[in-house]
Write a structure and sequence with these properties.
CATH topology of the domain at 199-417: Vanillyl-alcohol Oxidase, Chain A, domain 3
Largest sheet: 9 strands, antiparallel
Number of strands: 16
Helix content: 25-40%
Number of helices: 15
Strand content: 15-25%
Radius of gyration: 23 Å
Oligomer: single chain
Structural class: alpha+beta
């Protein structure tokens, strides 16, 4: 599971040897090989990894999405400083080398690896310096995670390093809050942090039944609208099927350490709720991640409607019942709240490009993530088609019922979803294009940075969005 609204504030020149593929081989006249050769001579030790090296192979195997491991870059770069990122970008742009950038590597579409070209893995840029401020942590008081960023250090398309904040480069500061792969490579976030105190957190798991689960959804909506802000408690629901077992999982996280009542009268199968630290709560949550699987996501946003959410789960059952033969298949419908309280707190902490669309209806909202997992590449087409059917049905039905919100959460979207065209209104999209023109007038990052969501070029191109890192021209 992945929780948008639970803020967690943490933002080798391996020379060619017997264990690595030499650079002087057939194909070394391509831009990718040329860039790897130049970088091998200019970066410090332990910063560049070639196919066949232990670090290259290790990084390849640590992607959340197994489809990303199918892609094989000419080399992988692990910069340890912003200056090394800048040097790498200058080299890549000088020689017109395609590249991708990996930060956490945890996304639902192929966007942080590349077939050919160069990958920048930012895992070594992991320093933390804490300056405590404020009294709380959750979105009820402080809005979304991006609202609490006070400075971005970013490497621009020309290799220069700038700080973007409310005083310096404020236009870029605003745009980076939905930056995608358009404006530069962020090498440091300065974020507001807040003293941590104990939380009440954990999961309660129930069997899914036609009587109890719709009532659970009704009760979740009532809690979200009436009590969540008072208790400062997030509740997210996951309805899914794993190994033929259908389970409803409710995740709780509250600054109020007094336990909340269950959302259903049904007996829980598992109850891990307890008073704990936020760090331990996050650690416990990691066990819910499905690692080393092939994955497909689809996301959308609606007004709160229990019958619709139950219908989405029911439609998922119909679609995935036909795919039960797929090895390792399991699937989930994850539902998270975006309350009016989050949006109000966001308004007080600053601007971001997506807020106008998100707040347009003035309603409490449900952010829905559809996810499916399986084992083998041979089943990709069938599983992609199943998710396409489920996502299209869900959005079409929500639109027909008058409850669809246009917002598409970038971190959950797949490459077929028009994130910028839907999540940013026309005026803000024009403003983002102006920022793009200011900091990358020749669209260097648009041409060379493969992967991620790209700004539409103009109003006639607003459904163009994601540039796959797997495209054949790489």
């Amino acid at each position: 599971m992945h929780f948008l609204l639970f803020p967690v504030f943490t933002v080798a020149l391996c020379r060619a040897s017997q264990s690595q593929t030499p650079l002087g081989v057939v194909g070394d006249n391509t831009p990718g090989h040329l860039c790897c050769t130049v970088l091998s001579k200019s970066l410090p030790e332990l910063a560049l990894h070639l196919p066949g090296s232990l670090e290259y192979d290790r990084q390849q195997e640590t992607y959340y999405l197994r489809q990303q491991t199918d892609l094989l870059p000419f080399c992988r770069v692990s910069p340890a400083t912003p200056s090394e990122v800048a040097l790498t970008i200058k080299t890549l742009t000088k020689h017109a080398c395609h590249f991708s950038v990996r930060s956490g590597g945890h996304m639902g579409c192929v966007g942080s690896n590349t077939d050919g070209g160069v990958v920048l893995d930012l895992g070594r840029l992991d320093g933390i310096d804490v300056d405590k401020r404020g009294i709380s942590l959750l979105s009820f008081q402080h809005g979304f995670g991006s609202d609490n960023v006070v400075n971005y250090q970013v490497v621009l398309a020309d290799g220069s390093i700038v700080d973007a904040n409310a005083t310096f480069h404020p236009d870029l500061f605003w745009a980076l809050k939905l930056g995608g792969t358009n404006f530069g490579i962020v090498t440091r976030f300065d974020v507001l942090t807040y003293p941590l105190k104990d939380v009440w957190s954990g999961i309660r798991t129930y069997p899914i039944t036609a009587h109890e689960t719709p009532q659970l959804l009704d009760n979740w909506i009532s809690f979200t609208q009436d009590s969540a802000s008072v208790k400062e408690e997030l509740q997210a629901i996951c309805l899914g099927r794993h190994n033929t077992h259908e389970r409803a999982i409710v995740w709780h996280a509250s600054l109020d350490t007094s336990p909340s009542a269950p959302l259903t009268l049904a007996a829980s199968i598992i109850d891990t709720t307890k008073t704990t630290t936020l760090l331990d709560a996050i650690h416990d949550l990691q066990f819910n991640f499905a690692d080393h699987k092939r994955v497909r996501w689809f996301t959308f946003t609606t007004r709160l409607d229990a019958s619709f959410l139950w219908d989405v789960f029911s439609r998922a059952k119909e679609i995935y019942d036909e795919l039960e033969h797929v090895s390792g298949i399991h699937w989930d419908v994850l539902i998270q709240p975006i309350t009016r309280g989050f949006s109000a707190a966001s308004s007080e902490t600053g601007e971001n490009p997506f807020r106008n669309v998100l707040m347009e209806s003035g309603d409490d909202l449900a952010l829905v993530l559809l996810s499916a997992y399986w084992d083998h590449r041979a089943d990709d087409e069938a599983m992609y088609d199943g998710m396409r059917k489920l996502g299209s049905w869900s959005e079409d039905t929500a639109r027909q019922r008058g409850i669809l919100n246009d917002f598409i959460y970038l971190n959950y979207a797949n490459e077929e979803q028009p994130v910028y065209a839907r999540s940013v209104n026309r005026d803000d999209l024009a403003r983002m294009r102006k920022v793009k023109q200011t900091y990358d007038s020749e669209d260097v990052l648009g041409r060379l940075w493969k992967g991620g969501f790209k700004l539409p070029h103009d109003s006639s191109d607003e459904h163009w969005g994601f540039e796959s890192a797997a495209r054949t021209e790489l």
